[in-house]
Amino acid sequence: MKVPIADLRSEIGAVKTVQSQVLLADLAAELCESAPEGVLHVKVTVTNTGAGFVVNGHIQGAVQMVCARCLEHFLCPVETDFQVLYRRQPVTDPERWAKGHEETNEQEDDVYFQGDVLDVAPAIWEHLLLALPMKPLCREDCLGLCPVCGQRCEDGDCGCDVENVDPRLAVLKDIME
Q1: Cβ proximity of 91 and 84 under 8 Å
Q2: Distances (CA, A) of 40 to 20, 58, 64, 157, 177
Q3: Which of 38, 78, 117, 120 stands the most exposed, by the fewest C-beta atoms within 10 Å?
Q4: Does pLDDT of 151 surpass 70?
């Protein structure tokens, strides 16, 4: 998602709001090989602060994920806000820029850009990944898979003999018998 900022450069405090629907496949095409499916509703507000451009964003949508317990696909709702400061890259020589950036005490979260367009797609992708659950579950009470045959426990009893014996302690069970 690219936001043109040429009209904001002349006045400090100028604000521009952009709303868009973003396909996850398009957003992640350049950033990863296998993109998840889903549509995001993104709203960004860009403000000229004089020192740079502050982008306040809101992401809302659903991402197709795989349940960590039963391996079924489901839509996981996502909603998050983010804020990123974009600063103009001061020099055109990349080697000199990299060396100068290491010596300054700039915020690590700041993003540097050139030209009259802000590319907010990487910021959207980063904050989307931070908003997704580490262990996605289709339902909080998902029973998962049978450890013997692999059938979904939601589909009914598979008839497998499932003992809750820790395999590390199985030797002790034999001693007791």
Answers
A1: no
A2: 8, 10, 11, 38, 59
A3: 117
A4: yes
Beta strand 111-113 with 15-23 is: unpaired
Each as own residue / partner, the long-range contacts of residues 33-38 (CB below 8 Å, 24 or more positions apart, any chain) are 36/63, 36/64, 36/65, 37/63, 37/64, 38/62, 38/63, 38/64, 38/75
pLDDT in tens, 19-66: 988 877 776 665 555 556 678 899 999 998 888 889 999 999 888 888
